[in-house]
Design a protein that fits this description.
LysR_HTH_N; D-Maltodextrin-Binding Protein, domain 2; 2 domains; DNA-binding; DNA-binding transcription factor activity; 316 residues; transcription regulation; Arc Repressor Mutant, subunit A; LysR_subst-bd; eleven-stranded mixed sheet; rod-shaped; alpha/beta
């Protein structure tokens, strides 16, 4: 480019493709090799680089019999071009992974313990498969989590069924045995199992969080009374109630997923009726209109882990 023309820059915009081609030319120091890498003709690459120089009003490359090399102005341009292309490629990769649900945030509502059981295993597997997804857990009662679903505060909720208030999507998952957490020195701790009738005269700790309301319904159903026993209600999380059991404040009904941790002075026993262990079933609930890309792979994982139930994914 002659000195007379090098400062007469064109007003035409620089195309993103020109940046990539200029970077390739600088990497190979040979237009022929760069053109082969780009799968274009050498004449096409040469013409595009000349046009780019005209647009910029600067000579980017020195062309010699030994190949091409960047000028001082060209090196400055290429440094900036690499940053632009690198940021664009990184942004594209992030958007692609997010659109596939491989990154982003997934808000999960729970109301059971994660010390053991299927929910713990499911979350660990999801973390292994999708390490770049930010999983945010929200704890609450069934009604609270269903309300969060309706307001889009959570993407999916794992709660005890049935839930007649929910008319959108759900998937039946697993069931868990009901367990009594007993003080280690309690007479019932010496039994292999505890029967519902044996709880009638006991003091029961009752949480207002998690599945506490479902346990109260079970007590009323199994004992046939609206006031089945002495209920000590507390608005605290599960581990605090289990600590109270350990110091003899009362008995606590929990699900088997909460038995994975050890609490001093606490013994766990299954609660049976005449037919055997009492179980509560869990469902995953979500909104069909939820457009969070991270939700779909998570639901696919649930259906994979429970394939015999996947056909009922739309049940309410």
């Amino acid at each position: 480019m002659s000195p007379a023309t090098r400062h007469r820059a064109s007003t035409a915009p620089v195309e993103f493709r020109d940046l990539r081609w200029a970077i390739a030319a600088s990497q190979h120091r040979s237009l022929r090799q760069a053109a082969e890498t780009l799968n274009i003709k050498q004449s096409t690459l040469s013409r595009r680089l000349r046009n780019l120089e005209c647009k910029l009003g600067s000579t980017l490359f020195e062309r010699t019999s030994g190949g091409t090399r960047p000028t001082i102005e060209g090196q400055e341009f290429l440094d900036a071009a690499r940053r632009v292309v690198g940021e664009a490629d990184a942004m594209t990769a992030r958007l692609k992974t997010r659109s596939r649900g491989e990154s982003g945030r997934l808000t999960i509502g729970i109301h059971t313990s994660l010390s053991a059981g299927n929910l713990r295993a499911t979350l660990l597997e999801h973390r292994h498969r999708f390490p770049d997804v930010d999983r945010q857990l929200v704890d609450g009662s069934r009604d609270h989590l269903i309300a969060d679903l309706a307001s889009s505060a959570v993407d999916v909720a794992f709660v005890v069924e049935p839930n007649p208030k929910w008319s959108d999507r759900s998937l039946l998952l697993w069931s868990e045995r009901v367990v009594a957490a007993l003080p280690a020195n309690h007479p019932l701790a010496g039994r292999d199992v505890v029967h519902w009738g044996e709880l009638r005269r006991e003091s029961l700790l009752m949480s207002q969080r998690g599945p506490g309301p479902e346990f109260l319904k079970l007590l009323i159903s199994k004992l046939g009374s609206s006031d089945p026993c002495l209920l000590l209600r507390h608005d605290v999380v599960l581990d605090r109630l289990l600590s109270l059991v350990g110091v003899g404040w009362g008995i606590l009904l929990i699900l088997e997923s909460a038995t994975g941790a050890v609490y001093p002075g606490v013994t766990f026993r299954e609660v049976h009726d005449a037919e055997g262990p009492t179980r509560l079933s869990f469902r995953a609930y979500w909104r069909q209109a939820n457009c969070n890309p991270s939700l779909s792979p998570f639901l696919d994982l649930l259906r994979e882990r429970y394939p015999d139930l996947s056909g009922d994914a739309g049940a309410g």
